[in-house]
Amino acid sequence: MLLGSRKRPSSDDSTDSEQHKRTRHEHEPGELAAVSSTCELSDLPNELLLHILSFIPEVQYATAVSSVCRRWYRLYLASRRSLTLATARNEPAASNRGDGGAVALVSEGRSVLLRMLASCPQLREIDTADVHIVDSDVAAMAEQHPRLRRLTLFSCNRLTDSSLASISHFQRLRALTMRFALCIPATAWHSLLRQRSFVCSLESFSSTLAQIDDEAVEAFVHNASPERLSSLHLSVCTLVTGASLALLALHHPQLKSLDFPAPHATDAQLTLMCERMTRLEQLQLWSATNLTPTHVASMSTSLRELYLPLAGNAPAIVSTIAEHLVGLRKLLLNIDGRLTLADVEPLVERLALLELLEIECRRGIEADAVSCITRLTQLQTLRLTACVDLSDTTLMRLARSLQRLSALELGPCHNITDCAMYSVATSGSPHLTRLMLLGARSLDDRAVSRLALAPRKLLEFTLEESQISDRGVASLAHSFPSLRLLSLALSSQLSSACISTFLLFPKLRHLRITGCQGITDDALPLLCNLTQLESLSLGHMPLLSQQSIETLKATLPNLTVISF
Fold first, then answer.
1. Which end of the chain is more exposed for a tag (fewer CB within 10 A), N or C?
2. Is 192 in contact with 170 (CB distance < 8 Å)?
3. 85 close to 113: Cβ distance less than 8 angstroms
4. How many CB atoms sit inside 10 A of residue 296's CB?
């Protein structure tokens, strides 16, 4: 019998029917034993009902439980362990207790957040996703949920040093992630990371674009527990130097995941990191321009994900990666040079299990090298920039060979025509959800109509410097109405009429129309109807006035407008 189902009385048994109509308190003492077998879930006390519902593992069942009645919904909130927020409309209104769906925040987002915090006393994880939180929100989290285990704060550009003071009250925090915390001064980070009682409990610490310097890293290194700390990410923290990398290698060689800026790190500092950190599974080194093949050869063989900037001697380093790090699943290379077929072949032969490959070459990737990549049949994400002489034939081979691709990003695509788009649509990967084509000067409405033959799974589409017109945008809306990101930057054929077509994308979150000079002030107010829009890129659009842009910002306060 399903949970909460009721046993219907037979029509020929009037006694049983009367018993079902009565409440538990209406039964006579002698009847109690007779009706005990018909006890329902709704008759159980909250504690026992919560225990029974805790055995439901799947997300869909947990969400369904919250929809049974008000009592079950309150019990669901009371037992909830994780909370994920989102600013967009039409998102799921609830998540299961442990797997974190999204709660929609619209114009009244502040009050929604506070109500959710008060309604979920058992929260152990909070993820603010794309919500622009303020200091008072962090203070409320610390006051109501001091036993929080995991806190993820994106879009921290409105937070100040008082937020770090509030975060220090989470004495049992295991994972802290903060992104874009540019307004928090370095002295506030010093104060937080010097608190041993707070830092020693952390297993993971991540901060992007923050004013963290060597002094803050030193305090963190000395207070963090070697038995607990396993992940440290300091992406684009430009105040950190190679000295902090060496200090980290000496005190925390047990790390499994490291994302670290290493500008001008010396040979000795890089050698110390590579030799001591033998348990690394994920490594991203930003601005490590002094890296050599010797350093790569001494890296942990357990690495599964690697990002390296290669300023010089790139072919030798790429060859060393292929020879020593055969277990890689994700490889990201930023090469200050030219990539040839001879450089790519060792990667293809030795790293056959690669699932993600991103290569950015400032001087280009030869067409033969791109064609060689078709042998990596396990790839799910492929991103190649500065491709030299990328042709229809090469793109067709990529589309037909890489049947597991979910994301494909290529550029420049000066020579790509609608024939290649037909191949991508008809014989490409059925899992493709993100397609980015940069410098697509030869692609127009015909290419879009060919792409429309693909299954309607595309969620992100970028077609920059193309000849697409308003009619092509309408074709996109008809074929891919679920698009969440659309970038048509530098498309000279677009006019103001395309703005009304954007309204046909009900789930659009990010729109980039930079350089579309045919769009005027008259059409811009229509974008106010895209209430779910989160970011809008404008620029190099002489027919747009600053006044119309400011009006749009005032109408959509949650919208981030990038204009220049």
1. N
2. no
3. yes
4. 22
pTM strictly above 0.85: no
DSSP state, 89? S
**Cα–Cα dist 54/314, whole Å:** 54
Q: What is the pLDDT along the chain (564 residues), one digit of tens a residue?
A: 334 444 444 444 444 444 444 444 444 444 444 444 566 777 788 778 777 776 765 555 556 666 778 777 777 777 778 888 765 433 333 333 334 444 444 334 556 677 778 878 888 899 987 777 889 889 999 999 999 999 999 888 889 999 999 999 998 999 999 998 889 999 999 999 999 999 999 999 999 989 999 999 999 999 999 999 999 999 889 899 999 999 999 999 999 999 998 877 899 999 999 999 999 999 999 878 888 899 999 999 999 999 988 766 788 889 999 999 999 999 999 888 788 899 899 999 999 999 999 998 888 888 889 999 999 999 999 999 888 778 999 999 999 999 999 999 998 999 999 999 999 998 889 999 999 999 999 999 999 999 988 776 899 999 999 999 999 999 999 999 999 999 999 999 999 999 999 999 999 999 999 999 999 999 999 999 998 898 899 988 999 999 999 999 889 887 888 886
Burial environment of residue 458 by CB neighbours within 10 A (0 to 12, 13 to 18, 19 or more)? buried
- Number of residues assigned to the chain: 564
> Who's near 101: CB < 8 A, 6+ residues apart?
59, 63, 84, 92, 94, 95
Dihedral sign, CA of 350, 352, 356, 361? positive
Q: What separation, in Å, do the N-terminal and C-terminal C-alpha atoms of the chain show?
A: 63
Question: What tokens appear for 208 in the block?
Answer: 């992007």
